[in-house]
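Q: Structure tokens for this one, please.
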Amino acid sequence: MFDENEHTHPQNNDEGPRHIHRGIKRSEPDEVEVDSADFFSPEPPRPSRPASAPQPEAGLPPEPPKSPVPPHKQWKPLHPSEAAPSADKLPKGGMVLLGLQAVLSLAALVQLWRTQMLPVLYLVIITALLVLLWLLVRKCLASRTGAVVARVLSVMLCAALAVGCVWAQQGLTTLNNVTSGLLTGAEANKITKEPFVVYLSGVDNRGELTENARSDVNILAVVNPVTKQAALINTPRDYYVDLAGTESKDKLTHAGLYGVETSMATLGNLYGVDVDHYIRINFAGFISIIDAIGGVDVYSDQAFTSVGSPGYYDPTTFAEGWNHLDGKSALAFARERHAFKTGDIQRGINQMKVIDAMANKLKSPTLLMSFSKLMDAAADCFVTSFSQEQISALVRMQLGDLASWDIQSYTVTGSGAKSSKCYSAKGQSLYVMKPDENSVNEAKALIAAVLGGEDKLTSTSQTPEKTEVYTPTADPNAAASVPEESPDSVIVEEPAPSDVPAESEAADGQPAEGSTSGEPNASTEVPAEGSEEVPADSTESPSFSMPTQEQVEQAASSLHQAASTVLDALFGSGTGGDSSSASTPAA
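A: Here is the predicted structure, written as tokens:
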């Protein structure tokens, strides 16, 4: 089996060790010189093996078959006029998708820039993301495995960008319709650097939002954008105040009948501050805006049930603690006053709770996600004196730093009373609320602290004590005011200053020619007889004083004497009359 050969060591002729080898020892092949040019030359054809291949020698394993080697192509340099072959050539449909995606991405960036609500850093980040998405889609389209996924992704992205552009345009159009004023960028940016006061008015209006309407919600929002402080001052609708533009008093809610500027001036005079802007909204707009931002979370001081309002909301029960409210339930929460012993005061506190919850939602980045929906909800139900640039500047400021705000709320108080001298309802006895001077002064101090930028605001937060909760049966849609508590006095106005002429009226009771009943003027009311004189600097009207015992006896004596005279004339009796004045009929 083995080929055994004996070999003698060349240095020792004696018998050496025996070596056993497997197979035959072959000599090393001779070295072959190869020209480098032969490496690039085509391989010559191999000669075919003859049919009768030589058989391998005995004792040797058969050689394995060799795989055919493909011939090498000869390399030739490209001509300058020839284009290099593209390894990632895009299909024609992919080029169209990429072009459409690029155009829509650019349009979306233009729309975002037009809103002027995003800081520059946000725009840069969004631009970078859109560019990366474009490159990703292009890379996937060039590959065979990811081409289908890239097409689907590109189509979805193009659709989203197109819808976003349309929504942004609708939002900008609506925002332009509800705002007023033309300001340059420098003027609009002042609102982010200087304190301002906004009048928030909730109008008791069921249809189109008009300028002249009673205002059931009257809140002054004092804002300091530098210190991130804000104060919400609520004034009850029945507050008995000096009506701006007149020398008379009236309920605050009636000031809205003469225009929003009259309400702003009336509140400004009450608190000694200039009211710069206003925001007005009606019931339908309030519901739509709350729903547009996904509802609000409001804390209720006590459990109560709000009476329903036909066409707006059903009777709603609220639990003590946190309640998640949609548009209708938020309106029910903000409008209810008959369920509380403190009536309109507690209603004002609840209204500011809802406004605070709305502010927390609107100051977050989620505002951009519902921008168009929010603007659609505000259409025809929301008007403001802010310009579009001012609103954009405020949103851009908040999104730029996402700062938290120190917001305090306060409601002025008063006592119930009756007055028949309201400017808008002369001769009618109406329920009013006499202002409490201490609470008004507290509100003034809070306003001054916010406008002055004090580091720490004076604590004026009100936590009402739990009182009786009633089950309301009155319809809140009724126009007449329902007193929350029994009036404790009857208000009689003080006489007008001598240098202001009194309002002249015709004999039939109508205003004389030249006077306009629909607008405030410098009219005065004639005080009732027996009213006491009030100092000029007094802000509260005196109460009606009861007659003394002596006055009652004098009135009774006069009445008895008049009755005796009438009886004597009718029956010929001389009692109580002069005998000479009586005539005796003939017998």
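A few notes: Residues 147-178 form the longest helix (32 residues). Residues 92-178 form one domain.
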